[in-house]
Amino acid sequence: MKSHIKLMRSNQGFTLIEILGAITILSIVLISFIGFFSQSIILSSKVEDELTAINIAESVLSEIKDDPSEVESYNGRRIVENERNYYPFIEIYSGEELSKTENDLNLDQVIVQVYAETPNPSENNTPSAELFGYIEQED
């Protein structure tokens, strides 16, 4: 007990070099964590954009399956989700462009591509989402 009291009453403490070393080590650890968190935020944002684009593509394909005449109204139309702009583009392939099986089943192939922020697919931009589906051929 006496040694504990002596230790508390002594004027010894940490030296300046020890404090600077501790601060340096702590700074290195904190900076590495900050870098990790900033990368995870960027990745999270990218994944959110891709999922939103996929949901928009599914929604557009579903509505086109219900009413194929709606294709032109969706091509290049701006859709705002999560405070971002998305632009769906729809292509329908039929007849000779399809396989024999698809023609025998009276199906047209539909490709829905959704671009985020850039509405022009001819600029060789990669779509945020691309979805393939089929609709019944119109007689």
CATH topology: Pantoate--beta-alanine Ligase, Chain: A,domain 2
Structural class assignment = alpha+beta
Low-confidence stretches: none
**Run of helices and strands:** HHHEEHEE
Number of strands: 4
State the name of the first-level CATH class.
Alpha Beta
- Strand fraction equals 15-25%
First and last CA, distance: 99 Å
Count of DSSP H/I helices: 4
**Biggest sheet, strands in spatial order?**
1-2-3-4
Keywords: Cell inner membrane, Cell membrane, Competence, Membrane, Methylation, Transmembrane, Transmembrane helix
Transmembrane segments: 12-37
Membrane topology: Single-pass membrane protein
Main location: membrane
Describe the model.
With 139 residues, the chain is an alpha+beta fold. The chain has four helices and four strands. Strands 1-2-3-4 form a four-stranded antiparallel sheet.
Task: List the keywords.
four-stranded antiparallel β-sheet, 49% helix, Pantoate--beta-alanine Ligase, Chain: A,domain 2, alpha+beta, 139 residues, 4 helices
